[in-house]
Amino acid sequence: MRKLWKIYKYVAVIAVSVLLVDLAVVATFSFYRPKIEKADAIVILGAAINTPALYNRSLEGLRLYEAGKAPLLVLSGGRISDKDISEATYMQRSIGKNTDKPLNLILEEESHSTYDNLKNTKAKIGKGKSVIIVSDEYHLARGVIMAWREGFYPVYWSSPTSTYYKKSELAFYYMREVMAMVAYIPKFIFG
Hints:
Rossmann fold, 52% helix, 5 strands, alpha/beta, five-stranded parallel β-sheet, elongated
């Protein structure tokens, strides 16, 4: 019985340690912003259509594009159901409503996860490119790490200000992201 209790203690210590390191990684990417140099592409990661998150991510990507940070926008996100438009199409429409300028963009409409976003983006533009990942602040760590995993370099990141979330919603999304990062550990390691 003592031996079993000792094993449980070690497992608990390891689990808590993983969660604390994970939380630190999520927080670091959320609050640290690298100086964005010119990149090959701006990759906007999808979210549910008709949400402030996806709309604001789209506008942040447009802002970076219009500031000359990259000559290409990649709008990445598939459909949640057959009745919906893709997240990429929603982004394209949101961006189109906010600019009259011609844009160089690629729609990646097959993704259903952050893993898919970066894997499918690599298939569209090739690896070894420099990219700027655009997502909500709590989601940046997973997006950037997956971009590195897929061979993009250097990787910069940016997010819109999260004023469209209530504090309780933002806390929920941060905690959900910590759990998602744990679930992504095999993808980070093995692809």
